[in-house]
Please model this.
Amino acid sequence: MLFGRKKRKPIKIVDKQVQEWKYAVCGYCSTGCSIEVGLNAEGRPVASRGKGSAPVNQGKLCIKGLFEHELSGSSGRGTVPLIREHTYDAYRECSWDEALDKTADEFKRIAEQYGPDSIAVVSTGQLLTEEFYTLGKLVRGVIGTNNYDGNTTLCMASAVSGYKRSFGSDGPPGCYEDFEQTHCLMAFGSNLPEQHPIIYWRLKEALEKRKFPVIVIDPRVTMLAQFADIHLPITPGTDLVLLNSLAHVIIKEGLQDQSYIDAHCNDFAAFSSMIEKYDPTTAAKICGIDEDMIRHVARIYAKAPSAMSIWTMGINQSTHGSDGVCGINNLNLITGNIGKPGGTSLSITGQCNAMGTREWSSCSGLPGYRMLEKTEHREEVAKFWGVDSSFFPAKRGLQQTDIFPAIESGQIKALWIVATNPLTSMPNQPRIRKTLEKLEFMVVQDGYADCETAQYSNVYLPGAVWGEKEGVQTNTERRVNLVRKFVEPPGQAKPDFWIFNQLAKRFERGQKMHFPESTSEIFDEMKMLSKGRGRNLDISGMSHDLIEQQSGIQWPMREGDSTGNPRLYSDGIFPTANGKANLLAMDYIENNEVPDDAFPFWLNSGRVVEHFHTRTKTGKLGNLNKFSPTPYMEMNPDAAAALGIHSMQYVRLVSRRGDAVVMVQPTHRVPRNMVFIPMHYHDCVNRLSLGLLDPYSRQPAFKQCAVRIEHIDQKEAAKLNVERRAF
Ligand code: SF4
Model:
């Protein structure tokens, strides 16, 4: 019996008339889902579907991946190079030759007048890895500035720094398969269901097969916290205190894996002596977690046959970000949970190819995780590229967050922005606006001519985006995966590697070097550079075709191997001087801006599932924009009632830097002294944020600053909101 359904019409799925499916890996987050894009008879992308046999996503996609084909033909794309003498002039269209000649001439003039380090380059996590490699070759080998960085400093720098300090090298040691093997998962500041939905699906699937405890550490009751067995609502910025205290309990109660420590770790004595003072009674007063709960969680983690930790921006975006990462690594080292099935310390990355830039862009060193500080690395790369090794600096230059103050002080005169949008993404936006006005010359290279940062550029170079060029990306679990080209870029837009090659030809030094014309040739060059005894980042066994066949391959995959390797450091040997990992003794120092009488609320920020990368892409796509179009703020209902604020009312948030207007959504997700705002809206959270820097990673503490809330005329606020959306 159909119980009243007789008259209901069946749901009809529109036939998109797909003629051909093309392989790609998703261009949004670092989960790295394999996608097939359906093309109709005219070759237009009309559908996206997950690839069923792909190891990462097994046919699943989140809302962003499901609508990714709509990127083709989205509004705001740049289709022709633009130029202007002064930023207060209107842009005019120009030829590629004029735009590239102007850029090269200005870089040469400024280098001659002030020195090459007066030029800064800020790149992204959005390009293909072959493009990152080419950009690094151009910046390090031709232009010669040391002030070169990626926007990954805003999201992943603390993870990179922490891995290097603990293990001697960057590179997440674990994989998603570890969910299937683990006996305990601890997640720090990571809201998987919204930020990495398909990794969350992998976790849920593992939990359905075999139950294990899930512990979430987050000041906010995130979606992941709602599903957790234990939620620790920690005081913002105090992760290191909790981590030191967990280690204190484990060692006091003799729960550590002493044989692993003795065989594979340095400095246990100094570490165990430092954490003496982090007893749970003392720690509870700082981090806000009950002392018995600290003991309970420490015992669960240490007694599990295997246990893993994951983290995202909640750890990284802090003045103690790098220490927090090392604290997580310490926890896993003392419990013997590195490099074994289900036992790992896994940073969940942000952008689709943040790993690619870390591995190959030469931002923080030289390609393939080589270091500027090591003479043999400088000589190796110099010989391979055909440049004099003395041309390379012997240590890293400024990072993104130090480049902007250097513009303020007059040290940097020219800025080249590649596929990133600092006017929205950098903390303290009012200051960034004033800073950009001080430049003598600025170039923005981006797929979108309407990205906010282009307001300040002299030259705009239209880049091709996802699916308009071919090459690889690396995901969170070190899986190298392929994006096939399936559509032409609009108008005169060009692949970024083409732009880099054309610029190289305009410099004498670049004319003497070889810049391959295709990404498969560039990939072959990278493979050759990746070979070497003891090198983990070895991709010499891969090829574009093999990567597509296997729907992604995890490095290391050495020449002759049939596939990649899921884990690093399974043999307990680390790339440090003596092959052992470092247990780091790190004391907590309170150095954040904290709420006070004048600014009584913590301001917390993060991503919602519909948004990505300052909404340059997602703000244009129907369903993604429709579901989250208006800047809003989560506020505790009791705090709202105390201030006479109602649901859906606009308020003005004020910090010591600036103000922003948002709509209030009352929810118990946030405690009474905290508000939360999605981070990707322009003219919103970063008008307020302070962004104090982590001393090791130079990553800003986006998530810890203080604000107050003021009433605002509702009509004025609504008008402001409409104007903002029309921008
Ligand atoms: Fe793309 Fe990430 Fe969604 Fe997968 S989870 S479809 S990689 S945005």
